[in-house]
Amino acid sequence: MESTLPASGTSKTLHHGLQVLELLVQHPRGLTLTEIADGIGVHRTVAHRLVRTLEAHYLCRRDRFKRISLGTGLVRLAEPVEQDLRTLARPVLEELTDSAQASAHLVVRENAEQVRMLMIVEPRRAAMHVAFRTGQLDPITRGSAGLAILAAGPPVPGERAEVTRARERGFAVSTGEIAPGITGISAVVRTGRDQPETSIGLSLFEAPDPDALGHLVMAAAQRLSALLG
Description:
By secondary structure, the protein is of the alpha+beta class. Helices cover 41% and strands 18% of the residues.
């Protein structure tokens, strides 16, 4: 995990506590206290205090081997996040993944530079499918999900040709930009002002007919937009 300095005017202790949680997300089988200290670049004593505080709030826990992993308290904190969007999106994603026999994803804009994987639904009958980690952050300028969101805005000087192309045809296509060999096809979801910028799409190993898949994705985006309207 790359260690970053807290921004000016923010809490250094809280910053380190959040770094612990982010580190544990990357290691679902847990880490030792020493590994956590090394991972976020603090003394073992500091790591011990951080972990004890997170344990007190059920945000992490230790097993009988003293390995530390994420705690169940995170479920309670995460449950309300974009609940309406996720609730409405799930049946649309399920229909999309059944139609395409590929993993369907819902992505929201996190900030000016990144998008976050909010939900992924995997096909039930496909022999093979793409799997991503829910919550992962990716650059908005790479991958079909971010490109589709950018394409929903007006043209800007120096934008990628893929963004311009996505604006013209209504969906974005990328290959190998988020994971090697994986093609993404995404379309923007028109949402209200209270909703984050959102895209819906497919991730698959092969896309022999991206136009046909693109139209499936656009139809799904329109359905979700109507539900959110």
